[in-house]
Amino acid sequence: MATIADPIRGTVMEQSGRRRGGPRNILKTVFLTGMALFYLLPIYVVVITSVKQIADVSTATMWELPTSISWGSYQQAWDSLSPNLAQSLRLVVPATILSALFGALNGYILSKWKFRGSDVLFTVMLFGMFIPYQAILIPLIRFLQEVGLYNSVAGLVIVHVVYGLPITTLIFRNFFTAIPGELIEAARVDGAGLLGIFFRIMLPLSVPAFVVVGIFQFTNIWNEFLFGLTIITNPAEQPITVALNNLSGSFSVDWSAVMAGSVLAALPTALIYILLGRFFIRGMLAGSMKG
Amino acid sequence: MARVIFDGVFKRYGNSSAPAVTDLSMEIHDREFLVLVGPSGCGKSTAMRMIAGLEEVSEGRIIIGDRVVNDLPPKDRNVAMVFQSYALYPHMTVRDNLAYPLKLRKVQKAERERRVLEAARMLEIEQFLDRKPKALSGGQRQRVALGRAVVRDADLFLMDEPLSNLDAKLRVQTRAELIKLHDRVQTTTIYVTHDQVEAMTMGDRIAVMSLGVLQQLDTPQNLYDKPANKFVAGFIGSPSMNFVDVQIEDAEGRLYATNPGGFRMRIPDSRGASLARFKGETVTLGIRPEHLVERNHFGGNPETVLPVTVDVIELLGNESFIYLNSGNAVLTARMSPEVKVERGQKIEVTAEPDRFYFFDPKTDAAVA
Question: Where, by residue number, does the polypeptide cross the bilayer (chain B) (predicted)?
């Protein structure tokens, strides 16, 4: 009896021992931490370079910590970038809100008010995601010139809203598909119309989808460079990404200012993710599980 | 309050050959509680959804009150509907759920509040008014769904299997409450279910549907006593009616029903006239389990008996189900526990003459 029971008990202990702090787990943790640090190296360089004196910046010492901390580069970056930062906000806020709203409306119709050919239309819309910006740049700019929106934030907003429609439509359509059809039928019998149901029933239920689409669009539009560069010609009115690029002059580059500018430019998207990240993951999973 | 008329209504989906609803014509009276019953896929829900306007009518007319509603959107039909899933608005409190249809109809705020309270009182959900649906039990949600219908002052209540998500005990209780509610508000109600017990206990009249076709529309008692065809006979009643194919034979002026390889049974004289035309042919004999009586327990002298063998006995305490066989025919009998029989025992069973049903096997129609 004992000879049979002992090895079994032994295995059990070995297994439970492996789960906590065993040699395998320590190795795994060390490896994963190492990989994480490796991935964070560029961030490290950006941050330490941004607080170095100009004289301290060189390729030879780029990995070394600064001898003294100087915030001057931030002041400098802020002075030259703040108009563009404001410009980016003026672009990204309306563009995100509008593309989310239109995506929600599209997704609502394509999931709950299907009509003949609506699935084909949806597939065709998704193709929009795969058209590279460069391919349509010249006709796009010609078009904006024709309608008088070239060289304006409004034009840039419209371009981003339209370019965002495929992905926002996709996310909202999949989200709304999970909302039971009986809810819409109940509202119809109760006396609501197509738009009434959208605003009173669907929108209040789609906060998670709005968070996902919001973060996604905010980040994409904030980081976009090509449209910002080509649709707006006046450097003072170009978005932050373009201005950041302009910060590095043609002959010499003030690395600490550029790095400080990068940090400034990256802050809004990082903040959005830190604040709404929990909802982002929850929203991505919404509909995939019940309950 | 309103009547509803189906006038030659068809519902076809796409190009599929069999319509979901075929040539449906019936009138549902004002204040009536009508139950649409049938197995799943029989078209009962489709018929109801066409009244609500959630499905288009392919052909024919639907009339609510005096209006042909074929082309009216749901919101203009003034009907209220209770869904199987309850379909409560999850982001609204119970109060807002009840008030929503009133708000959409531009009812003034004070009047709205009065009616919400009245409905909540009637359904005893007053104490939940400020909760959201997810904080309610199934039974409470069900009441809110009913409340949303009651609050509206609609011409018509449509209920699509409203009890099927409740547990058995609550279902029976709510069934009685729904009947009381109908007695009180008197609104014409159309109720869809697949459960024949629900249909029998609740309906003023019952419309039995199968494969998109209305089989019979009558009172519960008439459906039970005089089923129009084999489908209705088999659908109403539990356990369901026994069916045996028999040959009608004439011997010295008397009619006999013979089950090949099984029993030979004299046909009651009162049934002879209508069955005479089937002489030499096969018909389907139907007997309900509760009408089969062991010969010695039958009061008086039976006109006809069936010799059978006891196969299986299920004792339930208040009654027993006895499975009998006679050649290739298998019958279920529902008897009082006082009837003592044993497995393998040969007994004779009988029934009152008018409790034998006969169906034309070609059309399945009852032979009167």
Answer: none
Given CB atoms, is B147 within the 8 Å cutoff of chain A? no
Class of domain A80-285: mainly alpha
Could you tell me the CA-to-CA distances from A32 to A25, A29, A36, B64, B144 in Å, in that order?
10, 5, 6, 70, 53
Q: Looking at residue A4, what is its pLDDT?
A: 41
> What share of chain B in percent tops pLDDT 70?
99
With an 8 Å Cβ cutoff, is B56 touching chain A?
Answer: no
State the CATH architecture for B242-367.
Beta Barrel (2.40)
- In 3D space, the residue among A277, A258, A253, A264 whose CA is nearest the CA of residue A88 turns out to be A264
What is the C-alpha separation between B355 and B271, in angstroms, rounded?
Answer: 10
| Nearest CA-CA partner of A150 in A141, A159, A163 | A141
The pLDDT assigned to B275 comes to 86
Q: Which candidate from A182, A191, A204 shows the least CB-CB separation from B104? A: A191
pLDDT computed for residue A14 by the predictor: 46
CB within 8 A of A52, min separation 6: which ones? Answer: A66, A70, A73, A256
Record the tokens describing residue B163, joined without a space. Answer: 């009890």
Segment B5-33 shows an average pLDDT of 91
Domain ranges of chain A: 2-50, 80-285
Show the low-confidence residues of chain A (pLDDT under 70): 1-21, 249-251, 282-291
**Sign of torsion over alpha carbons B152, B157, B160, B161:** positive
Q: How many CB pairs under 8 A join A and B?
A: 57
Residue of A116, A73, A14 whose CA lies nearest to A255: A73
Residue type, B282: T
> What whole-number distance in Å separates Cα of residue A230 and Cα of residue A151?
9
- Test A189 with B54 for CB contact under 8 angstroms: yes
How far CA B340 is from CA of B12, B288, B320, B333, in Å, comes to: 54, 20, 10, 13
Domain boundaries, chain B: 4-235, 242-367
Per DSSP, the residues of A136-168 read HHHHHHHHHHHTT-TTSHHHHHHHHHHHHHHHH
| Beta carbons of A183 and B89 less than 8 Å apart | yes
Determine the Cα–Cα distance for residues B209 and B229; give it in Å rounded to an integer.
12
- CATH of segment(s) B4-235: 3.40.50.300
Residue B75 and residue A193: Cβ atoms within 8 Å? yes
Note which residues in 137-196 of chain A have CB less than 8 A from chain B.
Answer: 180, 182-183, 185-193, 196
Mean pLDDT over the full length of chain B: 91
Please provide residue B311's backbone torsions phi and psi, each rounded to the nearest 5 degrees. -95, -55
Alpha-carbon distance A140 to A158, whole Å? 11
Q: Measured between alpha carbons, how far is A35 from A281 in angstroms, rounded to an integer?
A: 23
- The count of other CB atoms within 10 Å of the CB of residue A135 is 9
Model confidence pLDDT, tens digit, residues B217-238: 999 999 999 999 999 999 999 8
Decide if A180 and B104 are in contact by the 8 Å CB cutoff: no
The pLDDT of residue A30 is: 95
ipTM beyond 0.95? Answer: no
List chain B residues with CB under 8 Å of A190.
75, 80, 100-101, 104, 148, 152
By C-alpha distance, which of B64, B163, B80 is closest to B115?
Answer: B80
